[in-house]
Amino acid sequence: MDYISLGRRIRKERKTNHLTQEALAEKVGISLSFLGHIERGSRKASVETLVSFANSLHVSLDSLLQDSLTDGGFSQTSASESQRDLLKEIGRMIETNLDKWNS
Known about the structure:
- This protein is mostly helical.
- Helix content is 67%, strand content 4%.
- It contains six helices and two strands; from the N terminus they run αααααββα.
- It has helices at 3-16, 21-28, 32-40, 47-57, 61-65, 81-102; strands at residues 70-71, 74-75.
- Strands 1-2 form a two-stranded antiparallel sheet.
- Strand 1 and strand 2 form a beta hairpin.
- Helix 1 packs across helix 3 (32-40).
């Protein structure tokens, strides 16, 4: 888990939503100090707290965690959702036909 990148994304989304640390901490139900640690990547948040961040910031949980997620070897940060779906389909097609193409 990339806690530093997670903290940076939370900070970025907080600022995009024009929220102070105090306002976000209150919405999420955590202390201001704990939010500061999360944004710096020095403390871990529970799943419930991460879901609360996503809901409070109006973003998906996977967008906050994208630096820690991989799917079939494709980075979640390198493509849009439709592009990732296309890359997954291409990967499945290659896996399915690889033996036939090597013959």
